[in-house]
């Protein structure tokens, strides 16, 4: 198969981005971190003091937002914001902003355009259900909320950010609720997706499990 799409969906902290990056290198794929694209929009709202609770405010500035991914760096209006988009402040507002229809329409169109004619792995929450419902392989990653919170705390610590475990766990549970109940493209396992629980798997074991699925389904 010359070109193909791998959809990697799941809730916050399930390991999607880390695993997708490794898989992309191992199989020589284009990796598209769709969550980072939504984070860039959220960062723009934050830095420009836009009251995103009013959807009109968001719709009015969307044309001012240019997002790109170049050499694994996340570019917002020509600025590398790779570190800025991973802060707790952005994390807290990305879900409600991601739920806005105009935002999703803009970014889904961009995701499809970038993926044309390539071998691509995309991670997100609606890749297998909305963005690419005909993806060649759909994987739905899950992990317990506690394990996901622990990973998020460790990730923050690696960036020099100290966050309380209980606070992070509460944020993750709230985000799960928002993502799974929102009207626009909710977090949902596609009917034909293969579920992989990473709660008791390390990164190497998780990567192997998904690599095996790719070899079985697509080859490589």
Automatic annotation (TrEMBL):
<protein>
    <recommendedName>
        <fullName>Cytidylate kinase</fullName>
        <ecNumber>2.7.4.25</ecNumber>
    </recommendedName>
</protein>
<dbReference type="InterPro" id="IPR003136">
    <property type="entry name" value="Cytidylate_kin"/>
</dbReference>
<dbReference type="InterPro" id="IPR027417">
    <property type="entry name" value="P-loop_NTPase"/>
</dbReference>
<keyword id="KW-0808">Transferase</keyword>
<keyword id="KW-0067">ATP-binding</keyword>
<keyword id="KW-0963">Cytoplasm</keyword>
<keyword id="KW-0418">Kinase</keyword>
<dbReference type="InterPro" id="IPR011994">
    <property type="entry name" value="Cytidylate_kinase_dom"/>
</dbReference>
<keyword id="KW-0547">Nucleotide-binding</keyword>
<comment type="similarity">
    <text>Belongs to the cytidylate kinase family. Type 1 subfamily.</text>
</comment>
<dbReference type="Pfam" id="PF02224">
    <property type="entry name" value="Cytidylate_kin"/>
</dbReference>
<feature type="binding site">
    <location>
        <begin position="10"/>
        <end position="18"/>
    </location>
    <ligand>
        <name>ATP</name>
    </ligand>
</feature>
<dbReference type="GO" id="GO:0016301">
    <property type="term" value="F:kinase activity"/>
</dbReference>
<feature type="domain" description="Cytidylate kinase">
    <location>
        <begin position="6"/>
        <end position="215"/>
    </location>
</feature>
């Amino acid at each position: 198969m010359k070109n193909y799409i791998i959809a990697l969906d799941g809730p916050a902290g399930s390991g999607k981005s880390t695993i997708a990056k490794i898989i992309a290198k191992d199989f020589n794929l284009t990796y598209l971190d769709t969550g980072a694209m939504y984070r860039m929009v959220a960062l723009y709202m934050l830095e420009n003091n836009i009251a995103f609770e009013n959807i009109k405010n968001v719709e009015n500035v969307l044309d001012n937002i240019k997002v790109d991914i170049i050499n694994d760096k996340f570019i917002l209006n020509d600025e590398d914001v790779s570190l800025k988009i991973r802060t707790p402040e952005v994390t807290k507002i990305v879900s409600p902003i991601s739920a806005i229809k105009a935002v999703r329409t803009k970014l889904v169109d961009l995701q499809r355009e970038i993926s044309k004619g390539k071998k691509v792995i995309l991670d997100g929450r609606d890749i297998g259900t909305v963005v690419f419902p005909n993806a060649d392989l759909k994987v739905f990653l899950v992990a317990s909320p506690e394990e996901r919170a622990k990973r998020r705390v460790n990730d923050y610590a690696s960036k020099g950010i100290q966050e309380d475990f209980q606070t992070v766990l509460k944020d993750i549970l709230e985000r799960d609720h928002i993502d799974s109940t929102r009207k626009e493209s909710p977090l949902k396992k596609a009917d034909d997706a293969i579920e992989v629980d990473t709660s008791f798997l390390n990164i190497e074991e998780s990567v192997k499990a998904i690599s095996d699925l790719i070899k079985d389904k697509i080859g490589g």
